[in-house]
Amino acid sequence: MAKPLIMIVEDEVEYADKVANAVKGSGKYKTATAYSAYDALNILKKNKVFFGLLPNRVECVLLDIKMPGMDGLQFLEKIRKEYGNNIGVIILTAYEDYDKWDRAITNLVAGYIKKPYDRQDLLRTLDLFFKDNETYEHMVAKTYKEGLEKLDEFEKDKI
What we know:
The chain is built from six helices and five strands. The protein is of the alpha/beta class.
């Protein structure tokens, strides 16, 4: 069986390469690295599957939010329009606020991991992501619930 392809979308080259090496180092996954959202769109285009069960060879995206040009959330909204929910997304960022969480959960992300990440936690999250469809759906639901709780916290902090 082929190893799942995970795309890391991160504008900080060293950090992106570090994440890619951690993921590849598990021996379970292949990676593609994009240093901008525009590069990521090109990688998705090149990996589009015209016949088959998956719409794209990229099955999961580890996505930074704060990037120049098109940010991660704009990228997320764009791929949801083009690919629907068939490509899983896990946010990997140092930033969180009301808007970021709202846009992330609205677009059904499977996780929201704060930087700096723990390698073992990241790999455990990926292992869960690829376990089966039911687990993936549970991850999306859990992240959605966590996001709603975060939104409530942000609202309370405003008062």
